[in-house]
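Practice problem: predict the structure.
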Amino acid sequence: QVQLVESGGGLVQAGGSLRLSCAASGSIFSINAMGWYRQAPGKQRELVAGIGSGGSTNYADSVKGRFTISRDNAKNTVYLQMNSLKPEDTAVYYCQVSAQRMGALYGNVYWGQGTQVTVSS
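Answer:
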């Protein structure tokens, strides 16, 4: 009953910006870490950015200084602000949430459906 819905992907020129959103809904008791991954064709899925329950963040070296991850706990939503986009940022972006459902004894990891980001040169 927990689902993640992503939005904000699209086509943008190099140097442009996009903001991705991922909203979790359902019978959620609590959310711990949230993050963004991306996967380009023929490549491994990689962690782009993560944010803990206390607000601590970490970024892949390739996006450090350009991307910013944030969260709105009241809305169960995680964001990824992407600035100074480069063609090599082109990929499908997936959000990931570690959450515990109402009545559950333990948490699980949930994935969004993915949103395409394409950066043209």
